[in-house]
Amino acid sequence: MRKHGKHLDFEINLIPCIDLLSVCICFLLLTAVWLHVGSMNVKQAVGGQSQAETPKKPLLWVYMGQDGQLSFNVQQSSLVPAALVNLKLPGIEGHANFSELNRILTQLTTKDPDLKTALIQPQAQSSYEEIIALMDEFKKLGLTDLGIAPL
Amino acid sequence: MLANQGVLHETALQSMIESQSLINPKHGKWKRNIVADLLLTALIDAFSILVIFLLMSFSSTGDMLYISKGQELPKASLADILERNPVVKLEEGKIFLESKEVTQNSLVGALLDMRKQFIESHPGEEAPNILMVQGDRRLKYEQLNQIILAASHAGYSDIRFAVMMK
Fold first, then answer.
1. What is the DSSP letter of A4?
2. How far B70 CA lies from chain A's nearest CA (Å)?
3. Of A40, A124, A133, the CB nearest to B141
4. Using CB atoms within 10 A as the burial measure, which of A90, A129, B45, B161 is most buried?
5. CB contact under 8 A, A18 and B47
6. Tens-of-pLDDT digits for all 166 residues of chain B?
């Protein structure tokens, strides 16, 4: 009886795979976006609706002062104790003290969990970078409705 | 001496030219098979890793903002996804609305015109009240303030600051 000379083991043709992967790599390299740009969404803190139309929600006003100083004023909240309604946070080396800011915001949001709105009032000389960093910090601590007031 | 006894010496493939040379006394010795197949599996592995990495960094939103060479956007870790909205760019003290230069005084008018154009081209639809602001991280707020005021006057209540994701 004659034996079959055909091999039973076979090899996958890898050349089309390489072609396909090469095309994929070329396409992805050409369309790759290396800089990830996002957006920090804020609302106009002043204007828009009239005061009667605006629902009374607890809100936090943040005034940016000289040398990174921040002043806080909590409004329309009955849960935040009087001692925490008005606070001042001195800056460090001309920048905001973010570690202390974190502590204050945690304290405020623990007292009033409905505190979700923060309105920022920068100064003419406030740096754009610092304003964004402040907004980012607020977002991290659950203050998601952000607003910015014009000068 | 050491090189002759080394593993490399024993395993290295003889070149075709070397074995066929007339000068070389080794001519004609076809002792070893010349099997120089490329290791395609390793190549495919590397390609697959590259494809996965590139797919991970692939962005379907595309490049919506043109960031010029000297401009650095501020960084934020909790930024939202970029959406297509009218862009006001502050660059070297100049204001650009959708790449068209406008002055501080004409910005409100230009924004209102844009709104009017949208209403004319999309009848029955409400004009969007979102404006994208693109500026260098070193800007002072007094420069941004003019855009925020103009946006407020033109009815753009939502402002989106373009930021670089951390």
1. P
2. 15
3. A124
4. B161
5. yes
6. 444 555 445 544 454 445 444 455 555 555 555 555 667 888 889 999 999 998 887 776 656 788 888 889 999 998 888 888 889 999 888 899 988 899 888 999 999 998 888 888 888 888 888 999 999 999 999 989 999 999 888 888 899 999 988 8
